[in-house]
């Protein structure tokens, strides 16, 4: 998770009770500007506005950067994104508002009054802005159901004191129904919510696109299955939210003298660093395109020595990647830790370096597809190493490997076989380590125009 520095534009001294408004977004360029414009009065009162992007492939981040105090990049999914926003928030009260929801004009004062009156969490009434004549009835039913059950939904803009949010552990790590699950925890810990009569207006686009009756019935079937204890991951896949593999990119800060040292011996440290940066940019562009095409999910840039560099921050802002620090230990230890972190979330993982020109959208598509039927996918390199490895289940395939030798891939393949894992090998390719590799790359580039 990374963030932009705090902006001072349009802000005032923090009020006695400060709100942190957290807006999760992904590919919301069409609506995010209007949503954030409506929140500027709260910013001018000294409240904080945080946008948490889930890897947008449009202009969401650049639009938000001009109107928010922080723009954070986090793993895709509202639970993950809202927890990331809460983690860097500075306010006393957290307010979670969807990117297509407009808060009432008195939102700040209404929340402060409710908290001052002894409530520790709550939500707004809702109206739905759409074309179907059924939407006013849907909204009234949502508001009534919430009052009767004490359960709120994300469309109703849930607010909660920071202390209570931290006490219940934040949003559960669920791919959907995270708002209902949080409401249950808040209700158990602090009683029923403050159900404010002030109206938040949310977009009716999902009702308009899929049809009001179909959407209503689908939501009720989803809730009924959830309350009956159905596996949330299965429900997410059933309702169009499959778990795409995480794409992990290992990279170093492109400082001359620290990257591509073998290449630098032939062409100089500065040019070698420039080549490294250009190849990394190429890899990240391919990764973003694969995400936009729906082949991979989150893109994690695992940074060395630290994510705190201008180059990494630029790549984060332009490609919507989550910045993470590579751990300690040898290459195998670091790669295993990265892959295992995604597998622990229930998501397959594909790891690549930054110096292979052959890693394009189609290469990533085929690797992701292979993980649906195999335990491991690898991309062998001509020099005896490999440029890609992906896992569908956690196993230490990196032990007893002599890194930096021509035996790396044969030893890894033998290790995979010894573990009884099903392996899919991608076609061999090359990475750019020497002047000869660079010349090969440049010839290929010239041939393709």
Explain this structure to me?
With 449 residues, the protein is α/β, with parallel strands linked by helices. The chain is 43% helix and 18% strand. The protein folds into two domains: 2-238, Spore Coat Polysaccharide Biosynthesis Protein SpsA, Chain A (Alpha-Beta Complex); 246-447, Spore Coat Polysaccharide Biosynthesis Protein SpsA, Chain A (Alpha-Beta Complex). It is elongated and about 70 Å long.
Q: Order the strands across the largest sheet as they lie in space.
A: 1-4-3-2-5-8-7-9-6
Q: Nearest-angstrom radius of gyration?
A: 24 Å
Report the CATH architecture of the largest domain.
Alpha-Beta Complex
Could you give the count of β-strands? 16
Biggest sheet record: 9 strands, mixed
| Distance separating the two termini | 37 Å
Query: Class by helix and strand content?
Result: alpha/beta
CATH class of the largest domain: Alpha Beta
Q: Unreliable stretches, pLDDT < 50, 5 or more residues?
A: 2-11
- Tally of contiguous helical segments: 18
**What's the number of domains?**
2
Shape: elongated
Mean pLDDT rating = 89
Helix share, percent: 40-55%
Note the quaternary state here: single chain
Question: What's the name of the CATH homologous superfamily of the largest domain?
Answer: Spore Coat Polysaccharide Biosynthesis Protein SpsA, Chain A
Chain-wise SSE layout:
Layout: E1 2-3, E2 19-25, H1 32-38, H2 40-44, E3 48-53, H3 60-65, E4 70-73, H4 78-88, E5 93-96, E6 101-102, H5 107-116, E7 121-129, H6 135-149, E8 159-161, H7 162-168, H8 178-190, E9 194-203, H9 205-210, H10 212-227, H11 232-238, E10 246-252, H12 261-267, H13 269-292, E11 299-304, H14 310-319, E12 322-325, H15 331-343, E13 349-352, H16 361-370, E14 376-380, E15 386-391, H17 408-418, E16 423-425, H18 435-447
Parallel strand pairs: 2-3, 2-5, 3-4, 7-9, 10-11, 10-13, 11-12, 14-16
Antiparallel strand pairs: 1-4, 5-8, 6-9, 7-8, 13-15, 14-15
Helix pairs in contact: 7-8, 12-13, 13-16
